[in-house]
Amino acid sequence: MTKLDRLKTEIESLTPEDFAYLRDWLAEKDWENWDKQIEADSESGKLDFLAQEALTASTSKRWQSKSLPS
């Protein structure tokens, strides 16, 4: 049995309260990892194209002609 199989077995035996806690903890860890990846991508320049697209859109007539919802 692999480590993952053992973890699955353990998870299936958790109380609903413990399962909810684990689920929330995993979600938080996932967000933390995502934040770290976004920060690393930003620092390395991988997201520079997004800033350029935003600047281009903000100066285009297409963007300026759109009215904001009130």
Approximate shape: elongated
Secondary-structure-derived class: mainly alpha
Provide the low-confidence segments as ranges: none
Specify Rg, calculated over alpha carbons.
Answer: 22 Å
Q: Give the % helix.
A: over 70%
Largest sheet: none
Number of strands: 0
Strand % is under 5%
**Secondary structure tally, helices:** 4
Secondary-structure element pattern, one letter each: HHHH
Mean pLDDT: 90
Distance between the termini: 59 Å
Keywords:
70 residues, mainly alpha, 4 helices, 80% helix, 0% strand
Please describe what this structure looks like.
Helix content is 80%, strand content 0%. The chain is mostly helical. The longest helix has 29 residues, at 16-44. The chain is elongated, with a radius of gyration of 22 Å. The protein has helices at 3-12, 16-44, 48-59, 61-65.
